[in-house]
Amino acid sequence: MGKEAGAGRRRTKLVIIARFVRPHSRPMIVYRGFSPTAHSATVLTIGNFDGVHLGHRALLARLTAAAANAGLPAAVLTFEPHPREFFAPESAPPRLSTLREKLELLADDGVDLAHVCHFNAGFAALSAEEFIERILIGALRVRQLIVGDDFRFGAGRAGDFALLREAGAGLGFQVEAMASVTVDGERASSSAVRDALQAGRLEHAARLLGRPYSIDGRVVHGDKIGRQLGFHTANIRIKHERPPLQGVFAVEVRGLPGGPHRGAANLGYRPTAHQVVRALLEVHLLDFSADIYGAHLNVRFLHKLRDEMKFPDFNALKAQIASDVAAVKAYFQL
User: Fold this and answer.
1) Domain locations along the chain
2) Nearest-CA neighbor of 164 among 186, 184, 144, 181?
């Protein structure tokens, strides 16, 4: 291996970066990189897990069951940035979940350990055989590996399930492949979820995910335009540079006392009032007026009302917002 690959290995130092607390259970521990040798043998799965859809969740259910049976931690190896963002940043699709959102979902599904691997040139240059020997065996002490049936790995995506099974027989770890999960005849995948969201088919996206699609963010001060229009809005700072959906939606908001709360949300670039270059999420909560600045909220997108549009003036915008709020109340049968 060359100097660049070696430099990549030197940066994969084991650092605990987070603990995600789960009710009535041990927290999920998140590591950046790998230790020279893991503290314990593991039952492992590998993937990007963008969105953590039903296919991922079936894999995680099998992972946690196998780990419990073996008396070992259920571990996930995932990547940051997404490999497609590394190889082709201009054409990479929008992420369904930020790293934090993904880790929260993994914790909710019972994962004990998450290793976040920095995907760089050094890591990308690892051959399939080096990946097995240095990462799976040397760093993570894999006892059992469970992967999707389309899993590929190593430089040039040369490694596959057959190679893993052959290596496992020689190096002493078991390998299992999970079949794809289908919903209404469609394979559950991150791209299928993304396509449904971009087409405004939120109910179908929810079926693929096993829950409504959501985005997390913190409430920050805005320019108070909603207040001027007669509709107080919570301006939520999101980490998604390019969210996979845009428009006006009926939403459910979690993270506030007495919740969940219902509301009307606009996710986009505000073409009428002070257009912005980075997407904003603004939520008008129905029958709610408390000061919530600084709150970290989870916004669940339930139904799309319309696309974002530019209005000739603020009066036309105000009339449309009133119509949107009425449509949201009708959706919730309020």
Assistant:
1) 3-183, 212-331
2) 144
Q: Which pair of tokens denotes residue 55? A: 């296919």
CATH of 212-331, one of 3.60.15.10, 2.40.30.30, 2.40.10.10, 3.40.1360.10: 2.40.30.30
**pLDDT score of 22:** 58
DSSP 103-137: HHHHHHTT-SEEEEEE--HHHHT--HHHIIIIIII
List C-alpha distances in Å: 119 to 8, 29, 78, 100, 107.
Answer: 9, 20, 9, 17, 22
CA distance 91 to 93: 6
Q: Do domains 3-183 and 212-331 have the same CATH topology?
A: no
Tokens of 50: 């963008």
Q: What percent of the chain has pLDDT over 70?
A: 87
Max Cα–Cα distance, the chain, nearest Å? 72
- Four-residue CA torsion sign, 169, 173, 174, 175: negative
- Rounded CA-CA distance 7/147 in Å is 28
- Lookup: tokens for 49: 């897990």
Quick one: 6 exposed, middle or buried, by C-beta within 10 A (0-12, 13-18, 19+)? exposed
Cα 298 from chain centroid (whole Å): 13
Read off the pLDDT of residues 235-276 as tens digits, 9 standing for 90 and up: 999 999 889 999 999 999 999 998 899 999 999 987 766 656
User: Regarding the domain with residue range 3-183, which homologous superfamily does it belong to in the CATH classification?
Assistant: HUPs (3.40.50.620)
Q: Rounded to an integer, what distance in angstroms lies between the CA atom of residue 75 and that of residue 66?
A: 11
pLDDT per position as a tens digit, 56-113: 999 999 999 999 999 999 999 999 999 999 999 889 999 999 999 999 999 999 999 9
Give the tokens for residue 300.
């669940």
In which residue are the tokens 């970066």 written?
Answer: 17
What is the mean pLDDT of the segment spanning 110-125? Answer: 93
